[in-house]
Specification:
This protein is mainly α and about 180 residues long. The chain folds into two domains: about 45 residues, Arc Repressor Mutant, subunit A, CATH 1.10.10; about 120 residues, no CATH class. It has nine helices and no strands. It is elongated, with a radius of gyration of 19 Å.
Length: about 180
């Protein structure tokens, strides 16, 4: 058995793989240590508790699902961005079964401050990027956003619709695209 893992990222990569294979029950200090071929103490060198390991794994999964797109063009207009986000949500559901429902619902029901913080951080990052795209989209009609109806408010509406789609496992963005066209273009 190795005494040291190659890196924190290697531990997180292994944790993501365990989620893919066994769901969230597969991620604990012992199972991750065994899958990495290291001692339990080695995992504790990187994470001081199971909660810290799971929290870091959650952030790592969010990063994998919504990593910066290889094709920058998807961030140039709102419609392309929405299509990309729906594809990523579908990828996330296929790659990490139960992640969205377990993560969001589980952490909201538990008193897991770190998990809630990480979830809100990931959501805020997605919302911020969506706002940037909405503001930069050259096709958005002048005056679409006002003090009473801001890009941030519209991004929150879009994001709520996307979260609802994830819960329903419906990855067809056509309704959200039509709403966006009618309001912004």
């Amino acid at each position: 058995m190795n005494n040291t893992a190659t890196s924190k990222e290697e531990i997180l990569k292994t944790s993501r793989k365990l989620i893919q294979e066994n769901g969230w029950t597969g991620v604990n200090i012992r199972s991750v240590a065994a899958a990495c071929g290291v001692s339990v103490g080695c995992i504790y060198n990187y994470f001081d508790s199971k909660t810290a390991l799971v929290g870091a794994t959650v952030a790592s999964v969010w990063g994998d699902i919504f990593h910066h797109p290889e094709d920058e063009a998807v961030l140039e207009d709102a419609l392309s961005c929405i299509r990309w986000m729906y594809r990523q949500m579908e990828y996330g559901c296929q790659t990490y079964p139960g992640f969205f429902t377990h993560h969001s619902l589980g952490f909201m029901q538990q008193d897991t401050a770190d998990g809630k913080r990480r979830m809100h951080f990931a959501w805020q990052h997605i919302l911020d990027q969506l706002c940037v795209v909405l503001r930069r989209d050259p096709q958005v009609r002048a005056g679409a956003f006002t003090e009473q109806f801001s890009a941030e408010q519209f991004a929150e509406v879009l994001f709520s619709l996307m979260l609802s789609a994830v819960i329903r496992q419906d990855f067809d963005p056509s309704a959200v695209l039509e709403i966006t066209r009618r309001i912004l273009y």
